[in-house]
């Protein structure tokens, strides 16, 4: 019987560190801390129905959305774990209006971490898959002083690490440091994330589209035409596509990453800039999908090329298999051509 090598996430972090000139023990510690926070949240997500962390708080987040108790619990876990050793100079969360306040022990930190602590929180009470999304940058302001907004308002292409954790039938930690995408599945029997999906690649073309069609009447004509196109029967192009929409970005993205397809959250008449946050959701997932061979755009330009102006800036998102994203952009360009004419 051939023995299969078991690779833990810690071992993988160390192996990856050797491949990058910017990687240090500190950078690896950030990744380790993220995986530690994921274990803690996994433990309590599993028993969320048994303790007083399910339900709605009296507070709202920066976007005016009512916060779930588990949202804020996850936020506190990630803040406490990431702020433990002075490696990170700045933390920003989708759940907090401004930069998270850190004391002087963080002034020597060389890295910035941004995160959505619990994506898909509207599904918490329904026991649907939820997740965490994270993004890592190098500091821009001088080391030795407090962090500044320019440390976090960086375009996505400057990310040195990004990924997500999905809490579903199993917990998976998926990340990239610019050298491919690697997925780890949590084994609670030994308390370790084990490498289960090395060098993940998304199919060049899929057969799934994910969009909230309840907003159909608010979609622009190009998006409506594209979705209608995907519903048409055509064996040569493998249409119609299958519609799959969970309403939890991490879950929808993870499925499409594995099986191929496109996730769309366009601008609408009510929200022309879309719903998703550039810094906490779109940038990290764009880095992951590009490293997996896919594409991400706001309909006009590559997501990773957008320079953010605000901590909670929103953007439309078209993300997934490269051929599917390109085809969606063809519809947008065609509509623009007619509009100009």
Write up this protein.
There is one protein chain. By secondary structure, this protein is of the alpha+beta class. The strands form three sheets. Strands 3-4-5-6-7-8-9 form a seven-stranded mixed β-sheet, with helices on both faces. A five-stranded mixed β-sheet has the order 11-10-12-14-13, with helices on both faces. It has seven helices and 14 strands. Helices cover 29% and strands 22% of the residues.
What's a quick, concise take on this entry?
The chain has helices at about 10-15, 25-45, 70-80, 220-230, 250-260, 280-290, 320-340, and strands at about 55-60, 65-70, 90-95, 110-120, 130-140, 160-165, 170-175, 180-185, 190-195, 210, 240-245, 260-265, 295, 315-320. With about 350 residues, it is an alpha+beta fold. The protein folds into two domains: about 10-195, Fructose-1,6-Bisphosphatase, subunit A, domain 1 (Fructose-1,6-Bisphosphatase, Chain A, domain 1, 2-Layer Sandwich), CATH 3.30.540.10; about 210-340, D-Maltodextrin-Binding Protein, domain 2 (3-Layer(aba) Sandwich).
């Amino acid at each position: 019987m051939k023995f299969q090598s078991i690779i833990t996430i810690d071992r993988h972090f160390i192996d990856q560190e050797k491949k990058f000139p910017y990687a240090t023990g500190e950078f690896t510690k950030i990744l380790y801390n993220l995986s530690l926070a994921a274990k803690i949240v996994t433990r309590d997500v599993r028993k969320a129905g048994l303790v007083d962390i399910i339900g709605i708080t009296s507070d709202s987040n920066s976007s005016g959305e009512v916060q779930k108790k588990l949202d804020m619990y996850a936020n506190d876990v990630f803040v406490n774990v990431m702020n433990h050793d002075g490696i990170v100079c700045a933390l920003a969360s989708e759940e907090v209006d401004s930069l998270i306040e850190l004391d002087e022990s963080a002034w020597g930190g060389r890295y910035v971490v941004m995160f959505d602590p619990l994506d898909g929180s509207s599904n918490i009470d329904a026991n649907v898959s939820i997740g965490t999304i994270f993004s890592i940058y190098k500091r821009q302001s001088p080391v030795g002083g407090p962090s500044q907004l320019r440390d976090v308002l960086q375009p996505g292409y400057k990310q040195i690490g990004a990924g997500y954790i999905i809490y579903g039938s199993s917990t998976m930690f998926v990340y990239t440091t610019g050298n491919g995408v690697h997925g780890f599945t949590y084994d609670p029997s030994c308390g370790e994330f084990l490498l289960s999906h090395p060098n993940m690649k998304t199919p060049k073309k899929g057969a799934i589209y994910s969009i909230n069609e309840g907003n159909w009447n608010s979609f622009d004509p190009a998006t409506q035409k594209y979705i209608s196109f995907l519903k048409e029967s055509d064996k040569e192009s493998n249409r119609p596509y299958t519609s799959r929409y969970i309403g939890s970005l991490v879950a929808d993205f993870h499925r499409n990453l594995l099986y191929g397809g496109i996730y769309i959250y366009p601008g609408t008449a009510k929200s022309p800039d879309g719903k998703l946050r550039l810094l906490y959701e779109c940038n990290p997932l764009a880095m992951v999908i590009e490293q997996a061979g896919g594409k991400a755009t706001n309909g006009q330009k590559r997501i990773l090329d957008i320079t953010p102006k605000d901590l909670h800036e929103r953007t439309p998102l078209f993300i997934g298999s490269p051929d599917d994203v390109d085809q969606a952009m063809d519809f947008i360009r065609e509509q623009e051509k007619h509009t100009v004419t």
